[in-house]
Write a structure and sequence with these properties.
Length: 98
C-alpha cells in the first residue's frame, strides 16, 4: 500500500471464492480449537436496514496494484490464530477492575 496509486483510496479484501460469515466463524473456531458458533435469528424490525449478503471483492486492488490473495482463507486463519496464541501475553492481558 506504499504506492501513490493508493492515496485517498479504499480497498475491500476477499478470498478467491465467496465465503459465508458462518463458514468464516466456524473456521476460526476450528483453527482455534475452542469456542462455538451459534446462529441467532435476525430481528424482524431491523431487516429493513440489513444489507443482506456481502462478498468481499479484491478486484479494485488487483486493478490498481496487481495484488491478489496468495494464501487460502483457511490457511490464513490458521496462521493468524497461531500467531495470536504465540503472542497471547501481548494481546490478552488480564485487566482487573476495582
Amino acid at each position: 500500500m506504499h504506492s501513490p496509486a493508493t492515496d485517498g483510496e479504499f480497498f475491500n479484501l476477499g478470498s478467491k471464492e465467496p465465503k459465508s460469515l458462518l463458514t468464516i466463524a466456524s473456521t476460526i473456531v476450528e483453527k482455534a480449537g475452542s469456542g462455538s458458533v451459534r446462529g441467532i435469528p435476525y430481528p424482524p424490525h431491523l431487516k429493513a436496514i440489513e444489507i443482506g449478503d456481502y462478498i468481499g471483492n479484491y478486484g479494485k486492488l488487483k486493478r490498481v496494484l496487481g495484488w491478489e490473495p496468495a494464501v487460502p482463507l483457511e490457511q490464513g486463519i490458521a496462521q493468524t490464530v497461531a500467531y495470536y496464541k504465540a503472542h497471547r501475553d501481548h494481546y490478552w492481558q488480564q485487566v482487573l477492575y476495582p
